[in-house]
Design a protein that fits this description.
The chain is an alpha/beta fold. It is built from 14 helices and 21 strands. 35% of the residues lie in helices and 24% in strands. α13 runs parallel beside α14. It is globular and about 60 Å long. Bound molecules: iron/sulfur cluster. The site of iron/sulfur cluster has 10 residues, from α7.
């Protein structure tokens, strides 16, 4: 019999990367299995799970201010919610959160959230608990079945990272690289398709490092897994993110040429264009080797859309070295890319490096970089006008009869007409914008 003060409603707020969003969805499913329902929009929840990200500066301070705001609102409403802190700040701060925030009942790391239900049972009885254990594989085995999902769904296949880029906390908050077993992934992919997925994005902090043994006992890498998942009936599209240049092998390049269900989109972070800066970042590749690698991918799939990640203002980065980043961008012509100012993360080698760059210099460099990236994204969208392509309908658009979906090149496309969420439709791209394209639904659209 559940104690009377057991939470009836929950809200899971996920910050940061797609893997955190995936973890947030899994935590929500687990709470659903406990009979707890999502709190209606705008209403306070009995249980709030802050699924935190540790990548940005002052990430931990932001969590403490969120906790303060939630417990103040609870006090004013005369009903204190149960608060759980999950994700990478929970992993990095652990017990410290308990000391600083009496309002928090549960602190759970990214590899231990499968224990949230039992922590909740304790919290309802007033027992506060912290769990930052790292049993990555065990976690997945303990998670409930995927019952409902979106047409474009996510599947974590790999966790952790062994690269130790000098600016990054992931190896410390997510642990060493682990690959989920091949058989578990095939089973979960089939369940996702049964639950409504038409597209699956394979997720990992370093997804290209995935390896396993297939059902014939042969050792396979990411390419082998992708080819086998492409045989799953009802699965129309496959994507993967996030990769590291050092783990991109010939077989993965070939898969972009021989596996039609693998979408023509590659997200491959580079971070900077200067070899001296890349070395100081411990990125284990040069600008030249990165460019040559992209050339080989483009040779395998001519219409491949490229995406990247960039950091400006890494300690010691000179004006000339920043120009090398702009030169690399000019050469690659990204279809889209993410760019950030360097932010020192506690416990990372770069945080104590000399020559930390002044904020106004970082601001100026980020503006110039984003102007170049936006120019190329617009050019890529313009070059797509006139093409007819398959769009996966993901949700309703702003206006009646309008739909929004993604092209094979991960562009947002909106169109009007007779369609439904989950449909794969043929659309002619008729107008380009900076972040999306307008399309015209073709006759006999649904494929
Ligand atoms: S490869 Fe990515 S996740 Fe791994 S340490 Fe580098 S930036 Fe972090």
């Amino acid at each position: 019999m559940k104690p009377t003060n057991s939470p009836k409603t929950y809200r899971v707020k996920s910050f940061g990367c797609q893997m955190n969003v995936y973890d947030g969805e899994r935590m929500a499913e687990m709470l659903g299995e406990q009979g707890i329902v999502p709190a209606p929009e705008g209403e306070d929840a009995d249980l709030v799970v802050l699924n935190t990200c540790h990548i940005r500066e002052k990430a931990a301070e932001k969590v403490y201010s969120d906790i303060g705001r939630i417990s103040k609102a609870g006090a004013e409403a005369g009903k204190q919610p149960l608060i759980a802190v999950a994700g990478c700040v929970a992993q990095a701060e652990g017990e410290e959160i308990m000391k600083r925030s009496p309002a928090v009942s549960m602190v759970v790391g990214p590899q231990a959230y499968h224990r949230l239900p039992e922590m909740l049972d304790k919290a309802v009885k007033g027992e506060r608990a912290t769990d930052t254990d790292m049993p990555a594989i065990a976690k997945f085995a303990a998670l409930p079945e995927r019952r409902r999902t979106n047409p474009a769904s996510f599947l974590t296949i790999q966790e952790g990272c062994d690269k130790f880029c000098t600016y990054c906390v992931v190896p410390y908050t997510r642990g060493a690289e682990i690959s989920r077993p091949y058989s578990d992934l095939v089973i979960e992919a089939k369940k996702l398709v049964d639950a409504g997925a038409k597209e699956i994005t394979l997720l990992g902090q370093n997804v290209s490092a995935w390896s396993g043994e297939n059902d014939k006992g042969h050792k396979v890498g990411l390419a082998g897994l992708i080819r086998d998942l492409a045989k799953v009936e009802g699965l129309a599209r496959i994507r993967y993110t996030t990769s590291h240049p050092a783990d991109m092998d010939d077989d993965l390049i070939a898969a972009h040429g021989d596996t039609p269900k693998l979408m023509p989109f590659l997200h491959l972070p580079v971070q900077a264009g200067s070899d001296r800066v890349l070395k100081a970042m411990n990125r284990s590749h040069t600008a030249e080797s990165y460019l040559r690698l992209l050339e080989r991918f483009r040779a395998a799939r001519a219409d491949l859309a490229l995406s990247g990640d960039f950091i400006v203002g890494f300690p010691g980065e000179s004006d000339a070295e920043f120009e090398e980043t702009l030169a690399l961008v000019d050469e690659v012509e990204y279809a889209q890319a993410f760019s950030f100012k360097y932010s020192p993360r506690p416990g990372t080698p770069a945080a104590t490096m000399d020559d930390q760059i002044a904020r106004e210099v970082m601001d100026e460099r980020l503006q110039r970089l984003q102007a170049a990236l936006n120019r190329d994204q617009m050019a890529f969208n313009h070059a797509s006008v006139g093409k007819t392509c398959e769009v996966l309908v993901e949700r309703k658009g702003k206006h009646p009869g309008q739909w929004l979906g993604k092209s094979p090149w991960l562009q947002s496309v909106w169109f009007e007409g007779d369609a439904a969420i989950g449909d794969l439709v043929q659309v002619e791209l008729v107008e380009a914008g900076p972040n999306s394209l307008a399309g015209k639904l073709c006759e006999m659209a649904v494929v």
